[in-house]
Structure formats: C-alpha cells, structure tokens
Amino acid sequence: MAVMDLKDALKTFFGFDSFKGSQEEIIQNVLDGNNTFVIMPTGGGKSMCYQLPAIISEGTAVIVSPLIALMKNQVDAMRHVSNDDSIAHFLNSSLTKSDATRVREDIVAGKTKLLYVAPESLTKKENIDFFTSVNISFFAIDEAHCISEWGHDFRPEYRRLREIFEEISDVPIIALTATATPKVQTDIQKNLNMVDAKVFKSSFNRENLYYEIFPKKDVEKQIIRYIRTQASKSGIIYCLSRKKVEELAELLKVNGINALPYHAGLDATTRARHQDMFLMEDVDVIVATIAFGMGIDKPDVRFVIHHDIPKSLESYYQETGRAGRDGGEGECVAFYRYKDVEKLEKFLQGKPIAEQEIGRQLLNEIASYAETSVCRRKMILHYFGETYDAARCNEMCDNCKHPKEKQEGKEYVLNLLKVVLELKETQRSKHYCSFMSGKVTAEIKAYKHDLSPFFGIGKEKDIHFWNAVVRQTVVSGLLSKDIESYGTLKMTDEGRAFMANPTSFEISKEHDYLGDDDVELSDNGGGRNAVLDQDLYDRLIDLRKRISKDKGIPPFVIFQDPSLRDMCFTYPTSIEELTNIQGVGTGKATRYGAPFAKMIKDYVEEHDIERLQDLVVKSVVNKSGMKVQLIQNIDRKLPLEDIGRAQGKSVDEVIDEIESIVQSGTRVNINYYIDDILDEEVQEEIYEYFAEAETDDLAAAYEEFDGDYSEEELRLMRIKFMSEMAN
Fold first, then answer.
1. Which end of the chain is more exposed for a tag (fewer CB within 10 A), N or C?
2. Are residues 543 and 594 in the same domain?
3. pLDDT in tens, 393-423
4. Using CA atoms, how far apart are residues 205 and 369, in angstroms rounded to an integer?
5. Close Cβ partners of 272 (under 8 Å, ≥ 6 residues apart)
6. Residue 267, Cβ neighbours under 10 Å: how many?
C-alpha cells in the first residue's frame, strides 16, 4: 500500500490528518510483513500501530492483552470507527458460551478485523484449533513487558506466546510496550524469537507531566485536600491493596468527592460499570489497585496519585503515564515512606532466590527515585536508558521547582570510585555505603572488608549521605548497575576518565524519609509546603506544657505534635470539632480538649481568621465497627498474630490500628501479649523511660536503649504507657 493510501486510511477510519511520531513507519513495517518492536510511552499512540494495519489487511489480527478492562475499552473505541460492531471483538473468560460462539462466527465470516484475547484464552486447545483454521493477518502483543521477568508486571503465560503463535500461523508479530529498560527489551526479543525485529523506540519523556513526592503522613487528609483543589477534574488514585481501595473510595465519598473503587475483587459487571462511569465523567475519581492495573484509555486524566509507592519504577512510569495523555496538564503525586518499601521486601520472602533478587533491585530503584534530590525526569529517563539535560525540566518536578542545597562533592566521588575498584567491582550500593561510612555489617565481616586500608574512608558522613553520592554518581554515568548480577556497581569509561582528570561534581542533599518531615500538600495543588500558623502552634505548645506540669504527665500524652499542627491548619473551636483532628478521639477531646478549643476560639477572634471548615476531613462511620471488633479481640486476649491473620493484616498493621485507637483516647489493655514477650524488669525500664521522656519518638527511644529492644517492643510498651497514662 502506498504511503498516500495510509494517510487516506488514517483520515477515513480515524479522522486524523497526520500520523504521530513514527506511527507511519511502524505501520508500513507491519504491512510489509516484518516483525516489529515498538517502545512508546503512554499517550504516544501505540494502539494505532496495530489498529490501522489490522483494518486494512486481509484476515483478523489477534491482539494479546493482559487486562479484560483494557480489551473492553479498546473494542468499544474500535466499534466507533465502523458501522459494524463485528469489526472488533474480545475473547476472554468474561464471555458466555453463546457470546463466544458469535465471536467465532464473525471471524469465520471475515467481519472481524481485530480480536483481543487474554494470554490464558490463547493457550486453550479449542482456541488454538480454531485460530489455525482461519486467516490471521498478524499477531500483536500489547503490554509486551509482561513477557520479561525483569518487567514490572511479569505474567508467566506470556512466556509461552511464541510457541503458540508458531503452532497457529507463520505471520508477523508486533510487540508493543510503554515501559522497557534495555534489559527488558532484550529479554522480550529473545523470548519471542524476534531479535531480527525492527525496533522503534520513542523518547520516554512526557514533558507535560509534573512529578512530586511527599512524605506519607496524614495521607488520606492530604489526598482529600488536594482533590478539592482540582475542581471536578478526572483523577486516578493507586493503592496496593483492595481493602485500602475500598476504604479510600468510601472516605472520599463521605467527604463529598465523586469517587468509585476499581479492583479485581469486584465482579465483572461492577468493574465495567465503574469504568464506564469514569469514562463518561459520571464520576471524577477512580481508586484502583496497582496489582490489577487500569485499562482505561481516558485522555483527560488530570492527576494520578499514588497512595502507596509501587513495586518498581516501570509500574510508576506506566501508572503516572495515564495522566495528561491529550498533552494537557497532568500532575503525578506520590506518597512515600521507607517503611512501605520494607513491607514490600517482606512479601518477597518465600519466593525463589532469583525472583527475590530481582524484586529487591526493582524496589531499590523506586526508593532511590523517591528519595533523590536530582531532577525526577532525569532519573526516570536514565532508568530507561535515555540521557536528559535537567535544565530542560523547566520546574516540572518538585526537585527542579524547589532545588535542595548542594555542596562540592569531587573528593567524595573520587573516594567512592577508588573503593569500587578496591573491592573489584563486586558489590552493590548498600555494601559500599556501609564500607564508606565505616559500619561493620555481617557481609563486610564475611568478606573481611573491614580489614581493608580504605574501610571507613568516609566515616565523617553517614550511610544516608553515601547513598546520595552513589545515586548521583550512577545517574551521572560514572558508575553503572550491572543488572545481570542484580545491581552490582561497575566502573564506566566516564568514571575512569573522571579519576584520571577529576572535575567539579556537585552533590545535592537528599530527602530523608526516615526523618520527621512536616511537608504537606499545598491548598492550590502546586506543590508548595502548607504554611503552619507558627504563632498559634507556639501558644498550644505552651498550653500543653502547663497542663502536663499540673497533671505530672509528659506533654505528648495529652496531644501529640501532629495533632497540634493539625489544629493550626483547621482551627477547631469546640470539643466536637477537635474529634476531627488526627489522633484525637472523643475520649481525648473530652478529657483534655476544653482549654485548647477555648484558646483556638479566642485566637481566631483576635486575629479575625476565616476558618476553612470545608477542609475538615470527615471519618468513615463504619471504621468504628472495625475498631470495636479489634478491641473485642484484644479483650478476648487473642494473640496479635491471630487477630492480623483473621483480618488479612500483618502484626505491624494491627499495631498501627491499636496505636491510632489509643492516640484517640481509648484505653486498650495488651498486657497479656506484652507479658509473653518482655520480662517485668524490662517493661518497667521502658515504661519509666516514656514517663520521663520529652518525646514519644521511637527513634529517640531506640537510641536511648542502644538498640537493646526492637522497634516492635518499644511500640508495644508505648501503647501500654499511653493507654494507662493518657486514657
């Protein structure tokens, strides 16, 4: 087909006057019968690369897609370009027997140009026999990264596609993905036996997207405040668990936000209805699981929020890529705390060693991205094998908009490079950071690296600092991570050149998400720090100190710092309004609240403050039922492990819930559990510490006891202390 004919076909079927990027060349390559590999970011127009050639070719194109939701969406879109609904069908487990029969009849009759199938459907013997008997124009594999174990959404059934294709028909293959690191790209081509394929790789840069990471604190409240600034714009919120999806969607609805949940646990009808409502703008926000993914091709999604950090940078890139596909604004906001990464690492336990190593490396990359102070766009593009000049970011990420302080780091980088060579380029980042800071770990002892003359060469700086040096040295290309050996650091030619002729190298101070950052989403969604009313905060601190002296209890027992800060944003002037403050339940508000509410009321009148009461986040009523159930289980003296198992939670998550109950002013007696794990003398020692401490900060307690007690033991004793003293 001539080039002109292709443009005519584009205009006739899709109404576009011209192709995007390399679409035309890709389509011609498919029509010429060649294997094709397309790496194109979300919003770049991947679907067109197989839709148009399918429509104008003889026979039916078989498109393998991992998501039922995505298939439905694509089929609906294709039916709009034709007068006949038979032009596109999907074949998957959601169809009835009669539906599946009609699909086959349309294919045999030559009416169907595109058939979307799940990989599981393709492997069924009856389907293989059917496809062998009909005319297949070509095979397309959408979301081809699912083939690679290094991809963020590995699907074992994708590994069998090549053998099935060969069994059915010898026709060209087009593989497409929006996320492929160089390693994943090679893996896909080898597995599909299409190393000869012509590769079309577009830039991964999405210039219209703004990237920002926030510390994960009061996350639900921050999300609600943020969405209220977005005035009926479409958005997606990603969570790691179905339970959190349901809870958050309910919380948003209670707070007047038009939101619906979307996850694999919902029945197919509900999922399809929720998806259609989002597409038709009957609902503004969809809350979805990362694990299930979102097959929604909606061009005007204006924000994507990650309630939980995803398991890999590929997942993050693909999910944020749902925003601004029409080229308009798209804000990508994620909430991060290192504890979440540790939790995800725990889930890797029990898996094969190779899978654990891959999982850990992917988690390390996403943690590096979250904590880095270099341009986020530069970091993402570096990960996908692209170089990028951060000056071009134009303040479209938080790190470029609010640059961190920098210092000359030439000597630090030189020392790091020397150590990498000294240790024969055999170790990963974590090992080098411990080595540089002089920390003797089990691994360092095993390798006898503590005996090296270079050991502790940078001990004036801590591990966190050396982490920053390693990351920034890697992003600058002086070191590289060897993926085959799960992230071993190797010297590059640029690194050797730097050692031979050292030049200035600025190191940016990194974000510390183990610390106590008080950053909040701004009320205009523009990524500034919300302004704390420092004058009121100081007055509340003084009031708390006076009450604590009168009652002979530590200040944090009355109200914790985050609660006081929250009061300085929403100005509660009654006991009832105080119960909307984080960490303040009815019991605590009744016991200690009156003088605080009065002080705030007087302050508001004195300064003529207009209170933004619409920013008070309402709680979901049915949560209290879950709390009652937890308290009843504790009253029955059930071990916390059993309580967690029954609710599908870890012990950590159960302790989180108990802490929030106790902080809100309800007494909870877990002595039966503590008595089983801690001696009486130990309990007394920790209890006395909290009774005399200025702060209830766990890191301070851990340091005070020089690591003799675990974080969990200290948390449990803090619960006991707060329950008895505060409630």
1. N
2. yes
3. 999 999 999 887 778 999 999 999 999 999 9
4. 16
5. 69, 72
6. 8
- Asked if residue 449 lies in contact with residue 544, where contact means CB atoms within 8 angstroms, the answer is no
| CB-based contacts of 601, cutoff 8 Å, min separation 6 | 573, 574
146-150, 592-596, 656-660: which has the minimum mean pLDDT?
146-150
- How many structural domains compose the chain? 5
The answer to whether residues 444 and 427 touch, using CB atoms and an 8 Å cutoff, is no
Taking the chain, what is the end-to-end CA distance rounded to the nearest angstrom?
79
Q: Are 262 and 68 in contact (CB under 8 A)?
A: no
Tokens 């700086």 belong to which residue?
Answer: 461
Start-end of H helices in 348-409: 353-371, 376-383, 398-401
How far, in Å, CA of 573 to CA of 593, rounded?
10
Q: Which amino acid is at 280?
A: M
Write the pLDDT tens digit of every residue in 669-687: 999 999 988 888 889 999 9
73, 185: one domain: yes
Q: Which of 475, 400, 390 is nearest to 212 (CA)?
A: 400
Residues 361 and 335 in one domain: yes
Q: Provide the pLDDT for residue 613.
A: 53
Q: What is the CATH number of the domain that holds 57?
A: 3.40.50.300
0.70 surpassed by pTM: no
- Tokens at residue 465, please? 């600092």
Distance CA 274, CA 245 (A): 13
Residues with Cβ within 8 Å of 624's Cβ and at least 6 positions away in sequence, in order, are none
Q: Looking at the structure, do residues 273 and 224 belong to the same domain, yes or no?
A: yes
608 domain-assigned = yes
Residue 446 lies in a domain: yes
Residue 30 maps to a domain: yes
The two beta strands, 88-91 and 114-117, are parallel
95 and 9 inside one domain: yes
Residues 231 and 194 occupy one common structural domain: no
Under the banding of pLDDT at 50, 70 and 90, the label for residue 612 is low
Count the residues in the chain: 727
User: Is residue 610 domain-shared with residue 650, that is, in the same domain?
Assistant: no
What domain range includes position 681? 623-726
Residue 390 sits in the same domain as residue 451: no
Three-class DSSP labels, 506-562: EEECCCCCCCCCCCCCCCCCCCCCCCCCHHHHHHHHHHHHHHHHHHCCCHHHHCCHH
Query: pLDDT-derived band of residue 18, with 50, 70 and 90 as boundaries?
Result: confident
Distance of alpha carbon 533 from the chain centroid: 31
Q: Per-residue pLDDT tens for 125-159?
A: 888 899 999 999 999 998 888 887 666 667 777 88
